[in-house]
Amino acid sequence: MDNFIALKNFSAEQINDLVELALKIKRSPADYQTALKGKYAGLLFEKPSLRTKTAFYVGSLQLGAQPVYYAPQEIKLGQREEVKDAARTFSKYLDVVVLRTSSHAILEEFSKFSSIPVVNALSDLLHPSQAIADILTIRELKKDIRKIKVAYAGDGNNVCNSLIYAFSILGGNLNLAIPARYKPRETVLKEALAKSASSGAHIEFVPSLKEAVCGADIIYTDVWTSMGKESERKIRKKYFKSFQINDTILKLAKNDVAVMHCLPAHRGEEITDSVIDGDNSVVFLQAENRLHAAKAILFSLLKK
Ligand code: CP
Ligand code: NVA
Predict the structure, then answer these.
(1) 7-126+290-302 architecture in CATH?
(2) What is the pLDDT of residues 5-58, one digit of tens each?
(3) What is the CATH number that goes with domain 130-286?
(4) pLDDT band at 231 (very low <50, low <70, confident <90, very high)
């Protein structure tokens, strides 16, 4: 692995290996506590973050590496200086850069000029480190992703795009309940379709939320209004109104359905308090798994 920017660049074997490594690290953290001794991990976040920042920050420390954190106002890629100049400079000091930025194009430009590995910590297009933690969570709870029904409801956003890539590569069953005007990008769907042909994945849009969740083993949702889209919140609430995960919807799924959400949640919008706080919710296991996934990603990139 040279970079960790998009799951579409990885094979099923590479993704499964990463998930297995995360599981190993989760079970035996002490075995890895000096694995990255002497390494420096830059954490450059141009948008807020609780989970991703903490997972990579604490994850670096738990592997023996030293994190260096840059807050949203500090570097200002492309404003204070050109993206390529920042990328080349970081490469002189650090061993890896974990980058959260609003534009996926900036992330790609940064990685083009960086001579050290770059990790996508969320862009407008993708959130691959989240997807690795999600696959780990599904693997722990339901074993084989190919033998269960997963329903994703809501916005065709960065989290959804990365799940689509993961399922298309690994060969899972993913039902998407997404309003027409908020569907994932055409390029993502096209690439996923091509990958599904060889992996045997079934990724389908279903006309209603009820149909998507009927008999589901996993229900996954994310905010209707992602970071950067705040001015659209009112109109989005209108279009997504019938896509809320609530008790009525939950009853249509299997009794042991696991409800997933990457967090942060907008309670009362995409998910009700009763569901996110209820017995079927696994959102904090998911949040915990961000740490183990982050460690597996850092280890894979830096341990040659
Ligand atoms: N799920 C996730 O990426 O959370 P943060 O935005 O808090 O990092
Ligand atoms: N789709 C959300 C995910 C946050 C982790 C956003 O981009 O804001």
Answers:
(1) 3-Layer(aba) Sandwich (3.40)
(2) 999 999 999 999 999 999 999 999 999 999 999 999 999 999 999 999 999 999
(3) 3.40.50.1370
(4) very high
Binning the chain into helix, strand and coil, the percentages to the nearest 5 are 50, 15, 35
Rounded to 5 degrees, φ, ψ at 301 are -80, -35
Task: Tell me the pTM.
Answer: 0.98
Domain map of the chain by residue range? 7-126+290-302, 130-286
Give the pLDDT confidence of 165-187 residue by residue, as tens digits: 999 999 999 999 999 999 999 99
CB-ligand 2 contact for 271 (6 Å cutoff): no
β-pair type (66-70, 40-45): parallel
| Ligand 1 near 130 CB (within 6 A) | yes
Do the domains spanning 7-126+290-302 and 130-286 agree at the CATH topology level?
yes
- Asked if residue 168 lies in contact with residue 195, where contact means CB atoms within 8 angstroms, the answer is yes
The Å distance, Cα 237 to ligand 2 centre, comes to: 16
Starting from the CA of residue 52, give the closest ligand.
1
pLDDT for the residue numbered 154: 98
In the three-class reduction of DSSP (H, G, I as helix; E, B as strand; rest coil), residue 5 is classed as coil
Say how far apart CA 299 and CA 32 lie, in whole Å: 9
Rounded to 10°, the helix 128-142/283-302 angle is 120
